[in-house]
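Final report, section 2: Outcomes. Of the targets proposed, Ppx/GppA family phosphatase is the one most frequently requested by collaborating groups, and we therefore present its record in full.
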Amino acid sequence: MYAAVDLGSNSFRFSIGKHDGEQIRVQKSVREPIRLAAGLDADGNLTLEAMQRALNCLRSFRATLATFELEAVRVVATSTMRQAKNIATFLPQAEQAIGYPIEIISGEEEGRLIYMGVANALAQPSERRLVVDIGGGSTELILGRGLEIERVESFSVGSVRQSLSFFIGGRVDAPSFEAAILSARSIFEDGAPPYHPQFWKRAYGSSGTIRAIADIIDKNGLDRTCPERGVTPASLDLLKERFIACGHVSRIDLPGLRPDRAGTIIGGLAILIGVMRELGIDQLAPIEAGLRMGVMWDLYQRSMRHDRREESVGAFQRKFNVDTARASRVADDAVALLDQLKPSSDATPRLLYWSALLHELGMAVSQTGYHKHTAYIIENADLPGFTTREQRTMSRLALAQKGNLRKVGEFLADADFARAVVALRLAIVFMHARIDVALAAPKLRMKNRIELELRREWVTDHPTLSYWIEKEQEHWDEVGVDLGLRYA
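The predicted structure is given below as tokens.
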């Protein structure tokens, strides 16, 4: 079984699912309305109260997850945690509370995972579709065909923020709704053309907000013209009028709407009306699949040795015309050297391998200082499957591949990172010196100092080797690490 934990801007949720040969069947789902986005203060920091609510929920989640035999667990955080300025303070506490690493994913990665969940649930390999997901802090538009994603964008407008910004004090009236709708339309306006109806056959709504709106419309008989459960511009306008007639969030009482959700549903409704008007969507079908289902499918595919990160690295090698033979040689040698240093984390060899495969992509920008260009591209690029944390680590490894080590000095306190840097730099040295690590098998150890053992004849056979090793000794000495060399 797999567990997907979604730390959203409005609610924290988790789902536990089991792959049955064709589909992932959900065994248990839990939702807690934490309203993290509403806990951001005027300076963009999470308040103490919001953090405490979140930590209490995460501890509860941890206790429940511990009662299941799980093959893998993945915890992802979305818009509000991307934005919170004090996230560096909160994140370690949150990870301790849940007992697993928390991945703050980009809006684009969020969209890809959402689409993966929807596409696998639909199982229609040739259908061209648009998926709309309205979260508490952001809205994702994803265009695809079957299982393949063609385009994904994340827009910084969500139900919580829209509700707080336009329905002040819970007041619901026509001017507030029109202002909220126009605001949403202005955000989608520039990005709308690639998502117009001529590029897809059917549109789906994957978020809890859209499913809740569709349920309210259905249970209140607001659109008899729709042949199946779904939403149309007409039904959304009728629902908007019902909300306006109530006048205040506290007085909204409609079948299908839980009282605790009214405060955010109004903002979500304004966004949905705005996006349907701007994109020209005539009908949107709600679907019981999205981010958490996508996370579970991603975990399943990784267990089957199908990792989207591999595909992303290969795509970037092609995009930047990387010399794949050189890159693969450095990657293989770096992992072999790292294996001698016995890293404590299983993730380190993989991140090192991918970093090495991309270590020269900055040459597409300039031969001079290419390692800096490589580092910048890796950290800031849209690399499907990778988390922000993973890209940052890979970026630092790329930056550390050559030259002085002072630029990454503060990160060398992490033992696994330091081991990976040693392995990558030496793999590059051996590549330049034309030494085949697989055949030569240099010996490498690292505790308080680095100990490297080479064959004496290599200096004669590879004239530049002594120069490169001497430079390495100087660079490591600058950060207080001794690189000892001996010959066998």
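The chain has 19 helices and 13 strands.
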